[in-house]
């Protein structure tokens, strides 16, 4: 995005990261982390984390 803005209009783009409380986390990334045994409890409700754990327990 920054490169396109610069190329098309000369505008400099500045990205400011947000706190994790206001950020977006893709479901695909969460599923992948859970699939490989990672802990996703900080990102989803407990019931979702448990369901993901159950889903990938057999793999």
Summarize the SSE layout with pairings:
Elements (H helix, E strand, L loop, with lengths): L1 H8 L17 H9 L10 H12 L2
Overall description:
- With 59 residues, the chain is mainly α.
- It is built from three helices and no strands.
- It is elongated and about 50 Å long.
What class would the helix/strand composition place it in? mainly alpha
Question: Total strand count, please?
Answer: 0
Globular, elongated, flat, extended or rod-shaped: what is the shape? elongated
Our measurement of the CA-to-CA distance between the termini, rounded to an integer number of angstroms, reads 38 Å
Task: Estimate the strand proportion.
Answer: under 5%
Mean pLDDT: 90
Sketch the topology as an H/E string, one letter per element: HHH
Fraction of residues in helix: 40-55%
Q: Uncertain segments of ≥5 residues (pLDDT<50)?
A: none
Global Rg:
17 Å
| Assembly of the depicted chains | single chain
Q: Major beta sheet, specifics? A: none
Number of helices: 3
